[in-house]
Amino acid sequence: MHFRNVFKTPPDFKTLGESYPQLKNHLVKKTDDHSTIDFKNPESLRALTVTLARHYFNLNVTIPTNRLIPTLPLRVNYLCWIDDLLAYSKPDHVTGIDIGTGCAAVYPLLGQKMF
Q: Which residue intervals of the chain are DSSP H helices?
């Protein structure tokens, strides 16, 4: 995980569930202090992605049930790497395009919030 990735320390699902009821409904107790979700359940993944977008980036996203569910930690990692490359090469002007943005346009939304 990139050192600037907000998810380099995994989120506390139990604490997030206390603030976000849509995630709380999908929590599975691991120990008294820790909870997780069923990562094989698309509804749980959808609730997690929506919660993380809202909590960490103040984004209200909707992911339809018949669409792929983006994983935010990996998307944030990718954007951090691109930012590193741009900082290294120091271009005068940058134009980016996201081909196939998906139902939630995650990369453009995260990029706008992060940079």
A: 13-19, 21-24, 42-57, 72-89, 106-114
